[in-house]
Specification:
By secondary structure, the chain is mostly helical. It is built from 25 helices and 10 strands. The protein has helices at residues 9-14, 18-29, 54-73, 101-105, 125-139, 149-154, 159-167, 169-176, 182-186, 239-250, 262-274, 306-312, 315-323, 337-357, 360-363, 367-372, 386-396, 401-411, 421-438, 449-463, 471-483, 492-503, 512-519, 521-532, 535-539; strands at 40-46, 79-85, 145-148, 191-193, 208-210, 215-219, 225-229, 235-237, 257-258, 284-285. The protein is elongated and about 95 Å long.
Length: 540
């Protein structure tokens, strides 16, 4: 990952945005000097017992934002991002959303990299899910290195750390046992041998350890007593010691995790220190809530998935939503999407202006800087907001992209799907969002006497305006129509709400002057006249 350009160090050092606060923790951890390994290592973790999900995206996106901040603070220090897959973990249960479940049931307990792929596409279930993870991360353009737990164990890259953990077996046990139940604590060991008879990952009592030979002794599933090496992939570590051992072996400098893993991360940090390492910097982000303030659960199916979000909005909007207040709980459901898209667009436009003005301080306060690492992608600035597109679809009942582009080209002749790929994506998403969420919930109403008078006045004003009037000029006339028909300053909000409820069948929308400029003055006049005749209420 390359360093963002043109950010003076004093401005970077004074920035208080959360990614910079995290990046400063990393600098403190490494003492301001490049580690011996030759790079600063950021890591995220993933369990391939299922497909990638919103948490996977959030962790990688937020870690990337911290890396952007780190590069602004230390532009000469190379960095790496490891996306670590714990694919040597045993299959604990059969997922409900995959085929061939009876087949999978016969492989419970085996490492995910030896469990057959139920989709019959890859070498194993883990290989399938790892491929999906890479495809998922690549689609967002993340700069990362994929690391497989099975590869690390089997290649011997973890051997030194595993032997060290064997020599400190009792110390590591004591670090974990306090959070375990009495029965579990009685037989706990940080090592999980791979059964030589069944190939399963065994959670069994370790009867003896031989540091000199690098072995553990246990009773296998077939009843035989086995002395087996802890190296070479013959054994893996329990997940908390595994996490700490990994931090030690790779010398991880930064890793964040969810608030549900606070105690586990503390234990992993203790294991790292027992092994002689230093735990990474990081923080614990809040988990997402659904519209009823309930924790999102994959098994419940509440909330929203990455795939669902991206069906209705571009990638950048989800990254923006992840940027906002990661240590505060946020709702994650369909209604938040339009606002997130338009707030991202606003920040992007501001960043463009801030860069042109050379206002680096403001630039680092801008969410878009962290999403794009200070580089605005070509064709990303759009002349039309997502909210406007939704209202355009609503007013014109446009269920196809071609109709939408017909209006857009009249408003912004230079706009084409090729020259503005981001706008093209917005149009596709707006049509789908309108069809699935807006159209089914439209509720028109008839105007009252005052509203009807104001709308009739607005029609007369629009008839006198040049067809190419800009949005601000039109907005002034919309205000005037309300003010001169009984709406004082405290009631103008009610006037605009009435406009949207009567004309479009919803209670809110973007600036109406901007909508008219996009939809067209003549088309808006027709829209108002049809509403005044009661045609929308009759049709509903």
């Amino acid at each position: 990952m390359t360093a963002p350009k043109n950010i003076p160090n004093d401005i970077a050092q004074s920035c208080r945005a959360w990614p910079f606060e995290e990046a400063k923790k990393v600098l403190k951890r490494i003492g301001g000097k490049l580690p011996k390994k030759g790079y600063v290592l950021f890591e995220t973790g993933y369990g391939p017992s299922g497909l990638p999900h919103i948490g996977t995206f959030g962790e990688v996106a937020r870690t990337t934002m911290v890396m952007h901040a780190f590069h602004a603070l230390a532009p000469d220090m190379p960095t790496k991002l490891f996306c670590f897959s714990d694919d040597m973990d045993g299959l604990r249960k059969v997922p409900t959303n995959v085929p061939n479940q009876d087949m999978l049931a016969g492989h419970i307990g085996k490492p995910l990299t030896v469990v057959p792929d139920p989709f019959e596409l890859y070498e194993s279930f883990a290989h399938h899910n790892n491929a999906k993870l890479n495809e998922f991360l690549d689609s967002f353009g993340f700069d990362y290195e994929f690391i497989s737990s099975s590869d690390m164990y089997k290649s011997g890259k973890f051997d030194e750390a595993l032997l060290l953990m064997l020599s400190k077996h009792e110390e590591v046990k004591k670090a974990v046992i306090p959070i375990l139940g009495e029965q579990r604590a009685a037989t706990y060991s940080p090592f999980l041998p791979i059964s030589p008879s069944t190939g399963r990952v065994l959670q069994v009592p370790i009867l003896d350890t031989n540091v000199e030979a690098g072995t553990i002794t246990f009773d296998d599933e077939d009843g035989s007593r086995v002395e087996q090496k802890v190296t070479g992939g013959a054994c893996k570590a329990q997940w908390r010691p595994d996490w700490g051992m990994r931090w030690y072996a790779l010398d991880v400098d930064y890793e964040m995790a969810g608030e549900d893993l606070i105690s586990s991360a503390q234990i992993a940090g203790k294991v790292t220190e027992i092994l002689g390492g230093k735990k990474p910097a990081g923080f614990h982000y809040k988990l997402f809530l659904d519209e009823h303030n309930q924790k999102i659960s994959k098994s419940k199916g509440n909330g929203i998935t990455v795939e669902q979000w991206l069906a209705y909005a571009p990638n950048e909007s989800l990254a923006y939503y992840m940027f906002q207040r990661p240590t505060s709980g946020k709702k994650l459901y369909f209604d938040v999407i339009p606002k997130a898209v338009d707030e991202y667009i606003t920040f992007l436009e501001k960043m463009d202006a801030q860069q042109k003005e050379g206002d680096h301080k403001k630039e680092l306060e801008n969410a878009a800087w962290y999403i794009h690492g200070g580089e605005i992608p070509q064709g990303q600035i759009t002349p039309v907001s997502f909210g406007l597109l939704l209202n355009l679809a609503s007013a014109s009942n446009a269920s196809d992209i071609e109709t939408m582009w017909g209006f857009i080209k009249l408003y912004a002749p230079e706009a084409t799907p090729d020259s503005m790929p981001f706008l093209s994506k917005l149009v596709e998403c707006a049509v789908k969002y309108y069809e699935d969420f807006v159209r089914p919930n439209k509720k028109y109403r008839a105007p009252d006497h005052r509203e009807a008078a104001a709308l009739e006045d607005l029609v007369e004003r629009l008839k006198k305006m040049p067809k190419d009037s800009d949005a601000e000029t039109i907005q002034t006339e919309v205000f005037s129509a309300g003010k001169e028909n009984g709406y004082d300053k405290t009631e103008l909000r009610d006037w605009f709400q009435a406009i949207y409820e009567v004309l479009i069948g919803q209670s809110q929308g973007p600036r109406f002057g901007s909508f008219i400029a996009l939809y067209g003055i003549d088309e808006t006049i027709t829209l108002i006249e049809e509403a005044l005749r009661g045609e929308f209420v009759k049709a509903a």
